[in-house]
Design goal:
The protein is an alpha+beta fold. It contains 5 helices and 4 strands, in the order H-H-E-E-H-H-E-E-H. Strands 2-1-4-3 form a 4-stranded antiparallel sheet. A hairpin with a 4-residue loop joins strand 1 and strand 2. Helix 2 packs across helix 5. The longest helix has 18 residues.
Length: about 160
């Protein structure tokens, strides 16, 4: 009896991957890539190396594709407020699927209505994390100038691009 049940369960699991394709199946379900903690740590390590190389004290926040915090790292000497700012930059980038610089530029160009949207932090330094053309999360950096934050974030993001 156990063998029959185990074989039936095994057959069920073996058949599941075949039911899905990259485009999805007829039931409206699609497979997608997910950012892992290991991937978040790799992106943060690359960003940290860039910040240290330049002598910038920053906070590095990594969120998943839903904007949920996955990893946060505050370098020694960074002001405490940068923890929240880095997280908000990352969340904005993930949810709006673009670098936060694009939103900063839009607001600077007069599109102040963007400020009324939820989860908008239009400050440069948030960059989407892209894997095989799919946004799997974002990195946000805060603590230096906006341009320096963006430089550090881009280095972190580039570790996952394929």
């Amino acid at each position: 009896m156990r063998f029959v049940m185990a074989a039936a369960i095994g057959a069920l699991f073996l058949s599941v991957p075949a039911a899905f394709s990259a485009e999805g199946d007829t039931k409206g379900v699609k497979q997608k890539f997910s950012l892992t903690l290991d991937g978040a740590k790799k992106a943060a390590a690359a960003a940290e190396a860039e910040a240290l190389k330049n002598g910038w004290n920053v906070v590095i926040a990594i969120v998943d594709d839903g904007g949920n915090l996955l990893y946060l790292q505050r370098l020694d000497g960074t002001q405490a407020s940068s923890s929240e700012t880095a997280t908000r930059k990352a969340r904005t980038s993930a949810l709006f699927k673009r670098p936060t610089k694009a939103l900063e530029d839009a607001v600077a160009g007069g599109r102040v209505a963007l400020l009324s949207l939820p989860n908008v932090t239009p400050l440069e330094g948030g960059v989407p994390l892209v894997y095989k053309g799919e946004i799997i999360g974002a990195i946000g950096v805060s603590g230096a100038t906006s341009q320096q934050d963006a430089q550090v974030a881009k280095i972190g993001a580039d570790t996952l691009v394929q």
